[in-house]
Amino acid sequence: MKHSYVAEVLASQDIHQEFTVKGWVRSFRANQFIALNDGSTINNLQCVVDYENTDPELLKRITVGAAIAVTGILEESQGKGQRVEIKAQTIVIEGDAHPEEVKLTILSPKRHSLEKLREQSHLRVRTNTFGAVMRLRSKLSFAIHQYFNERGFYQAHTPIITGSDAEGAGEMFKITALDLENPPKNEDGSINYKEDFFGKETNLTVSGQLEAETYALGLGKVYTFGPTFRAENSNTSRHLAEFWMIEPEVAFCDLDGNMDLAEDFIKYVVNYVLTHCQDDLAFLENRLVQEDKSKPQAERASMLLREKLQFVVDNNFKRVSYTEAIDILRNSKPNKKKKFKFPINAWGADLQSEHERFLVEKHFECPVILFDYPANIKAFYMRLNEDGKTVRAMDILFPGIGEIVGGSQREERLDVLKEKMAALDIPEEELHWYLDTRRFGTCTHSGFGLGFERLVLFVTGMTNIRDVIPYPRTPGNADI
Ligand code: 4AD
Ligand code: MG
Asked: For residue 395, what is the enclosing H or E element?
């Protein structure tokens, strides 16, 4: 029989009509009031049991975590806290959840720390916090596709297994089908990858950018949205070994156009969830307010979650060159008082997250786009400026997050690109196909990568990236 979802029933005007709902028991109070949740919304549906006329054996099985189907009549609720409720006529238990066993899990009705929830990542989506985060994650993903689709972009499905290192940083997971106990060897003792599955060395992609460039130089405007993998050993609250990245790439677009696109794109998707995900955002906002109560005044958030999101939508991102940023940092209080772990002494220094956060959170107090970075701290494919020492790179820095976007105008001049690759020992043979795009109708083009989980972090107000992806992969952890 067709059943209704809790979200529909809660919004329904069909008072006195019969509904069947199915979900998991969140609580069962006084042998009468079931709070039922089916994941369609953060809100529970109250189902009222006529316990005097219900089999006591059945009542005993209505326990926290159990999956049940309730058929009954929708009525205006007498009680506080809900507009409508279901007066249950029949209850069917689909799956029991034994209280003694539930007690040992994060499903037990008490406050569990986020660390504890991480230990049972297969169950945490049944909690309010993770339900809200994962619904928002899904809505954001949809908004991203909608944004590009409405603007004439095509999605390019770039490969996950590649033979190239797009970022040239060597942080790749290798792929092999060889018997690692006994791999075929060359005469010099090295592994003979010619005998491997693909007849060469391959790895999981760190970015779809290079392949996306080839597609932009044919379809005009493309984007990728897929998993990327980095074997960097950064055990931080901002890094995952497997994360999702959105990478638009646009032909005949320079760095200014690229910054405009990134800013407009972020504002669109943030605005989308502000419009479409009020209930989940309200819940997460309140969660942060409660959390702040236990913190000293100085550490509390200056804006509520939705205010913070609205601020991003309403205000221009501040655009600052790397050179200006270095001046600001060099003369900053924390630098002078030696509070930075990595002091800023000279132009050319790579910015660490402490510097990025100072600029965004203390100095400008709004999202910042830094551009024109020193060539030698950025990837090989970025367009060299006339000064010969900076490249047309841009990073977008967000409060509480640090870098959320990294992008650039690409080096479209074959000779300059080849020189750069030679200087970095990147073999031309490996990227012959990439160089071809500079041989046949090369043109100005630009793109960027947005780390999806960092966006979800920002939007949900969560603080650890492990809590915004269903099954986080981090150094030492690939559970489930
Ligand atoms: O700055 P990145 O390394 O840039 C690129 O990969 C370019 N190919 C993008 C492009 O121009 N098409 O990474 C882009 C973004 C970062 O700004 C950050 O948000 C996210 O990806 N990111 C990570 N997110 C989670 N865990 C990690 N280990 C991440 N590394 C990068
Ligand atoms: Mg970057």
From this structure: strand 390-398
